[in-house]
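On clarity, I found the account of how folds are encoded harder to follow than it need be. What matters is that the chain and its backbone geometry are given together, residue for residue. The format is easy to grasp once an entry is in front of the reader. For illustration, here is how one protein appears when written out as sequence plus structure tokens.
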Amino acid sequence: MKTILLAACLTLVAAEAQAISRYDPTHMSCGKVQSTIARQGAVILRYKSTRVPGLPLYDRYVQSQQFCTMGEVRTRAYVPSADTKSCPVYTASGRIMKGISGGDSSTTTRPLIDCSGGLRSVVQLRLSAACAFIRGSVP
């Protein structure tokens, strides 16, 4: 049983550690940005802020909901490109929950992980929980 759980942990870590390509959309046309995302499924686009000089901005942009992690949704976003200031693309953003603020039917974006106690990735959390179980420290 412990061997199976250890193998599952290692498989999970390997699956989550896939490489993702990084691009500067300001050196590409809008069509090229969109076709690159469509071809690769998910990419990181990094560009400089127009409001704060020198501040780099970046995010993970996806082709479809299939490339979002569990709990994320595909949301419309806009990035600058070589030929336009706002090229339409999609990003994977945090969970959308209905009726959280004040009990009404408004839609609010909430983060999936509360990082106030220190930043830990989902992989680290899963791995530490599985390893604690294997060591027998979880009842």
